[in-house]
Amino acid sequence: MDSTLEATVEKVPSLEDKRQTSRMYWGFKFEQVMTSPPGDETSLQKPVSNFESFQSVLYTKVGGYRGTGVLFGAEMDCLDPKKVPTKPPDCYVELKTCKGIEDESGMRSFCYHKLMQYWAQSFICGVPTILVGFRLDNGHVLSTDELPMSKVPLIAQANGDAWKPAVCQNFLNSFLQFVTVLVTESHEQTIYKLKLDVSQQRVVVTREEATAQNQFVPTWYLDQRPGY
User: Fold this and answer.
1) Residues 75-124: pLDDT tens digits?
2) I want to staple 68 with a disulfide (CB 3.0 to 4.6 A). Which of 21, 176, 202, 212 is the partner?
3) Do the Cβ atoms of 135 and 142 come closer than 8 Å?
């Protein structure tokens, strides 16, 4: 659309959904506790809600000066009051919860499954700090740890995980370039679906005829585009 690609994420139902819902609730509760004024019991008694959020609209280039430009919205959990009035996003903090680390195996799992995800999400948004709450299986948080985003890859490498930031960035850049070549038809004609097949280490592409059911670009957005 006007040389711009519009994308969204399609959620696929799974058997993990019920447990994932519980973990999401714990995460929202952790955010509520960490952002409430100290000793403010009234705020802590309020029902947890994920409908209220602060979104930051960001533009970045993936792959350097000649890379692919990406305009996106990202939810910001909170800001560090000690860094105010630092210019955003340098004052933002990402809040996460994770199962507590009990042994070396747990640490390796944390570095592989969690730290790369935390780093990728924070890096592309420019969020410099990640605060992790380590919880029990019942959701109770026992401890917290503040991780500078720039140090996350070093923590992973020090614990035997070999993922590298440059590899992640190069994959994203290659993927975006692949998509720009792939998409040749208007959103009014075709919906392109892309799925990562981890076992085959490849991206699977399917095309669907555009219908009212699979259209994801809202009409109010189209109506406000100049010349559309």
Assistant:
1) 999 999 888 777 888 999 999 999 999 998 899 889 988 999 999 999 99
2) 176
3) yes
Place of tokens 């040389």: 3
**Coil, helix or strand at residue 206:** strand
Helix (H) or strand (E) holding 59: strand 54-62
Between strands 129-135 and 202-209, the pairing is unpaired
Let me know: does 116 contact 164? Beta carbons within 8 Å. no
What the block records as the tokens of 110 is 């944390």
Query: Alpha-carbon distance 105 to 113, whole Å?
Result: 12
Helix runs in the chain, H state only? 17-35, 41-44, 104-109, 116-125, 152-158, 165-182, 219-224
Whether 180 contacts 68, CB under 8 Å: yes
Distance (Å, whole) CA 31 – CA 78: 8
The Cα 8–Cα 215 span in angstroms is 10
